[in-house]
Amino acid sequence: MKVEIIKCLQDNYSYIIIDEKYNHACVVDPSEAEPIINFVESKNIKLKFVLNTHHHYDHVGGNNDLKKKYKVKIVGYKNDKKRIPNIDILLENNEIWKSENFQAKIIHIPGHTSGHICFYFIKEKIAFTGDTLFSLGCGRIFEGTYEEMYNSLNKLKKLPSDTKIYCGHEYTLQNSLFCSKYDKNNKNLEKKILQIKNKIEKNLPTIPSTLREELTCNIFLRAKNLKDFSKLRDLKDNF
Ligand code: ZN
Ligand code: FE
């Protein structure tokens, strides 16, 4: 399995997961169809599935056109069946979704939206965290409570620490400013910020991160309790 990073819209990332044995692929959160189509055509792969982490337009915008062009099956959380355009396959929390060599555990992580899920590819230890866990940040709480978001992040914290984290946006540099303001003297964070700046200068994605790096550097994962987490989330909203 190989993951290709596709830049979309302003600062979104879509991800194409390729099973190199058959050249079949899934795309996670196609914000728009065009960059996905360009990639698929240039590499001669067959796009089979769209995996949506949540229903926001910048994550499902390409669903309809990709379905028209490639007859892909669209996969998402069952409770969002009315909000995810053209959904075909409805998933539940803790379900293992399988097709061909693709195999992902579905982890319901509400908070940003009520129907947000993570696709965790168990064998490969790859997590697609959408707008819930960002590198050095977490998503805004739109539909849930602080407690829901806190619990969702705690679920993700339990994945193996060498899990690769692929999130929905390139917010890492901006997030790092907040982390360093409220987590001074964190040597791991200082080291990660140098790596981030290096990548940004070369116009490279800062993604993937690893769960281990996030556990040591991401202030939202380092919050000791719900109260501290909620305070940080409020501060970040006005940062
Ligand atoms: Zn979103
Ligand atoms: Fe988003």
Features:
alpha/beta; binds zinc ion; Metallo-beta-lactamase, Chain A; 35% helix; 239 residues; six-stranded mixed β-sheet; binds fe (iii) ion
Notes on the structure:
There is one protein chain. The chain has 239 residues and is of the alpha/beta class. It has one domain (2-237): Metallo-beta-lactamase, Chain A (4-Layer Sandwich), CATH 3.60.15.10. The protein contains nine helices and 14 strands. The strands form three sheets. A six-stranded mixed β-sheet has the order 1-2-3-4-5-6, covered by helices on one side. A six-stranded mixed β-sheet has the order 7-8-9-10-13-14. Strand 3 (24-28), helix 1 and strand 4 (46-51) form a beta-alpha-beta unit. Helix 5 (172-182) runs antiparallel to helix 6 (187-201). The longest helix has 15 residues, at 187-201. It is globular. 44% of the residues are buried. Zinc ion binds at residues 54, 56, 112, 131.
With strands numbered from the N-terminus, the spatial order across the biggest sheet is 1-2-3-4-5-6
CATH domain topology? Metallo-beta-lactamase, Chain A
Share in β-strands: 25-35%
The outline comes out as: globular
Radius of gyration: 17 Å
| Relevant CATH superfamily | Ribonuclease Z/Hydroxyacylglutathione hydrolase-like
